[in-house]
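Q: What would this complex look like in 3D?
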Amino acid sequence: MQFSSSLLENAVNEFARLPGIGKKTALRLVLHLLKTDPAKVEAFGDAVSRMRNEIKFCQRCFNVSDADICSICSNSLRRQEIICVVENIRDVIAIESTQQFSGTYHVLGGIISPLDGVGPDQLNIDPLIHRVHKEKPQELIFALNPNIQGDTTIYYIQKKLNASPEPTTVRITTISRGIAFGGELEYADELTLGRSLQNRMPVESYMSNR
Amino acid sequence: MQFSSSLLENAVNEFARLPGIGKKTALRLVLHLLKTDPAKVEAFGDAVSRMRNEIKFCQRCFNVSDADICSICSNSLRRQEIICVVENIRDVIAIESTQQFSGTYHVLGGIISPLDGVGPDQLNIDPLIHRVHKEKPQELIFALNPNIQGDTTIYYIQKKLNASPEPTTVRITTISRGIAFGGELEYADELTLGRSLQNRMPVESYMSNR
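A: Here is my prediction, written as structure tokens for the whole assembly.
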């Protein structure tokens, strides 16, 4: 692409660095901003810079936060004795959007994946072990993706908890797996369908959740 | 979507204001920036702000420019006596990318479209008439989209040129319309195929262009 302005070219190149944004989309976005009120463009740039520079990570659960302790951890209405372990911030947002969870979170910041070079030391696992021993929560709910990396991570954390000299009485659970609501049985994969038969649940608890 | 940080929420909302970017894509982009080196995020914000605040429009052709006269107009290697009339900056970039045009441009900044409330007065038509009378170019090439608005705009400019007291000798042309290279005849629309038969060209000139 040939640009007659280096300012335009720079802006397009910066946008094209973002994931999933190609040169043509970048140009479309920049030309949109060029037609936008300068004050609004300033607000856009400010919001992005401030987000990067001022955002903090909660010292307790590692979720993004405006303060040292995030709004979920500092909310006295939430059940502090239930900790939901998730891979990243996106999962927190997804679970919060369901409005079905009133406990707190622990963001691992990734998942154990030797192939990608991610080991337990790069994740917030030690702080989690520490937190469990210190806060003595009632329950640890793992909400990780159902793949080999997720299973490995659960297994590792469980072993580490049991290996510590001080035994914990925390109940360890994972979110349920099965056929999605609205899903069609005939299109479900065999593993999910097979497991959903093994892990069948009483109709009463199913009905009461609807 | 529920966010635990207002900084994150602001940044996501700003991105989601861009055309074709929804909340989920905005979140993906912002979380990417959150993992990016702060200096690079600063560079991103700067490039956008500077583009909006410092970009100029060429006083001669109304293309985007870093200076009062754009790099195309001030380039002595380009044929200043040939003016290609386009709707917007995107068309300039598209034509420049072909590397087949060595003349200059005139950006109308839109197209006459009464339904959208765009009349000739909102476009850079008067400056074009003025430019033609002043510079006395050899040729005016219209590269507008082949629809009723494009045709109306060409017709209006042509009339206006002829209506001025001082007659012009400028040659007025439009880019050729026809079957696209690589296009299949059977899938071409009837209008294009019919016109391409009417406006057939000598094989020699076709071959020499390949």
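A: To summarize the key features: The CA atoms of residues 128 and 134 of chain A lie 10 Å apart. The domain at 6-54 of chain A is CATH 1.10.8.420 (Helicase, Ruva Protein; domain 3).
Q: Very helpful, thank you.
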